[in-house]
Amino acid sequence: MAEQQEGTGAGGGEGPRHVAIIMDGNGRWAQARGRPRLFGHHAGAKRVREIVEACPDLGVKYLTIFAFSTENWKRTQKEVAGLMSLFRRYIQKEAEDLFRRGVRVRFIGDRVRLEPKLVDLMDELELLTAGNDRVHLTIALNYGGRDEVARAARRMAQDVEAGRLKARDVNEETLPRYLDTCVLPDPDLVIRTSGEARISNFLLWQSAYAEYEFIDTLWPDFTAEVFARVVARYGRRERRFGAVLGE
Ligand code: IPE
Ligand code: IPE
Ligand code: MG
14-143+187-235: CATH homologous superfamily? Predict the structure, then answer.
């Protein structure tokens, strides 16, 4: 039997160790209530605490959430500015609570395009929670899978140029060390809310063998109960990793 990836237990009834979520549908949620899109983003941000809190009981040690993609800059200036301000306020408001609840927070994505004030808050939160280990929450902000792989390739090329890495050592083991997610296990389960069945440039390399769940619920309606149900479904799946099981 092929060697299973560490920490994955599907088929055996165990839960996923790393769940990644594409939090989609805030705009439609607001629209359905006749409210502006930002109203939906605020409602969506409020959901995060409940989902993080549900993780330990479900055996989820790593939770990665997609908050803003490298493509989301294409939205109106008003929406982008509103989201950036929401991220700032979210960090300021939630930092202490995340710390007290034992959450270790990390950010992935390209920080270069983010405003310095936001980047400072992100750095501070990472530092504040660096000693925590109850749940590892990773927030993807200005994140794109292709951008991440391209940035990794650039840094590998720089290391080759500087003589720190040999071209023949560029392989499936070394490349992920240059990704933003280098310290994280690969996601076992990727959930996308809002009914869209696409991955929109999320964790492309890391999700090569993830299980996917596309659910109709809009992100602001995604409760701990819905989360638990989706996680339970994962335990009934059979992961094969290219092998024929039982041989
Ligand atoms: C997801 O909700 C949040 C972000 C992409 C920032 P959307 O804003 O994409 O909501 P819909 O898809 O328009 O409903
Ligand atoms: C993906 O949602 C990005 C986030 C949830 C942050 P989008 O709403 O941006 O994706 P598309 O445009 O439907 O592919
Ligand atoms: Mg969307």
Answer: Decaprenyl diphosphate synthase-like (3.40.1180.10)
Q: Which of 26, 72, 142, 180 is catalytic?
A: 72
Active site residue 142: no
66 CB less than 6 Å from ligand 1? no
Q: How far apart are CA 180 and CA 143, in angstroms?
A: 9
Q: Which ligand is nearest to the CA of 218?
A: 1
Best probe residue, ligand 2, of 86, 200, 207, 218 (max atoms within 8 Å of C-beta):
200
pTM of this prediction exceeds 0.90: yes
Mean pLDDT computed over 207-218: 98
Q: Which residue has the higher pLDDT, 236 or 103?
A: 103
pLDDT, tens digit, 9 for 90 and up, residues 15-38: 999 999 999 999 999 999 999 999
Which pLDDT score is estimated for 12?
Answer: 57
pLDDT tens-place string over residues 194-212: 999 999 999 999 999 999 9
| Overall size of the chain counted in residues | 247
Which residue has a Cα nearest atom 1 of ligand 2?
200
Centre of ligand 1 to C-alpha 196, Å, is 11
Q: Where are the domains of the chain?
A: 14-143+187-235
